[in-house]
TrEMBL record:
InterPro entries: DUF4382
Annotated protein name in UniProt: DUF4382 domain-containing protein
Pfam families membership: DUF4382 (PF14321)
Domain DUF4382: 39-182
């Protein structure tokens, strides 16, 4: 009431100017609404590694999400226009490939738009170009159920499985051409947990697998210097952790009944890989 009394006491021309200013301030809010109202989606990428390559480079043009049942609902989350070496995203390492404010609601798909070129794999020091057979137009589509809420950050973890995505197209044992057939899974980070430990000795260089039943759900390669490993993005449950030595001088081992809880890291300590038995 005090503000209204002051406005009534000013000249009409000044009153009109104040009214225009107030209307402009209310509408120039970038669609956030009077109380903020927008949520945030952040997309992180990690990798299940490949043992037969030294680098796997993938060029991502755009990251998009969809909140409709048709092709009209796509929203650009980010345009990285950047190449990523998937083999740098192991042992819990992630890369943010998109983060943006979104209107609240349920987003049911995400897709990565890849470039026509710019993908490569390095094998034994030699770099080979990779083609995406399906082309970059439709992108890699993944079904999600991301509920964006006001003032909340929703983090989506994309696991780009390099070991299943790089396909040798040449004759057996003499591959000179490679194809990129992306295999990617998406999980909400907030409902997952992790496993970490240390392989001893580090020179055993094991590939570490998280196995549920008969399914291998995630993998990584233990650090070749420290032996440390970390597997992220696991749903709650019980897992076998298999350490497969890449050094023939050591045996592979399995740690059973590793329990993973949401939002926690299961620390399994030091796992010894015994020397290989002599025949």
């Amino acid at each position: 009431m005090i503000l209204q009394n002051k406005i009534l006491s000013v000249p009409l021309t000044l009153l009109i100017g104040i009214s225009v200013l107030v209307v402009g301030c209310e509408t120039d809010d970038s669609g956030l609404g009077a109380d903020g109202g927008m949520g945030t989606m952040t997309v992180q990428m990690t990798d299940a590694p490949i043992d037969s390559a030294d680098a796997v480079n993938v060029f991502i043009e755009r990251v998009e999400v969809n909140n409709a049942e048709d092709e009209e609902g796509w929203t650009v989350l980010n345009e990285p226009q950047q190449s990523y070496n998937l083999l740098e995203l192991v042992n819990g390492a992630t890369e943010v490939i998109g983060s943006s404010e979104l209107e609240p609601g349920v987003y049911n798909q995400i897709r990565l738009i890849l470039s026509e070129g710019g993908h490569s794999v390095e094998v034994n020091g030699e770099v080979h170009d990779m083609k995406v057979p399906s082309g970059p137009q439709t992108g890699i589509k993944l079904n999600i159920n991301a509920e964006i809420e006001p003032d909340i950050e929703y983090v989506l973890l994309l696991d780009f499985d390099a070991s299943r995505s790089v396909v040798a197209a040449g004759p057996p044992g003499n591959a000179v051409k490679y194809l990129l057939k992306p295999v990617v899974t998406a999980k909400e980070e907030a409902i997952t947990g992790n496993i970490e430990g240390t392989a001893d000795p580090a020179e055993s260089r094991p590939v570490v697998y998280a196995i549920s039943g008969t399914d291998t759900l995630a993998s990584t390669i233990a650090d070749t210097t420290s032996g440390d490993f970390r597997i992220i993005g696991l749903e709650e449950g019980s897992y076998e952790v298999a350490l497969h030595s890449r050094n023939e001088a050591y045996q592979s081992v399995v740690e059973e009944d590793v329990s993973v809880s949401v939002g926690a890291t299961a620390e399994i300590g030091t796992i010894e890989l015994p020397p290989a038995t002599e025949e």
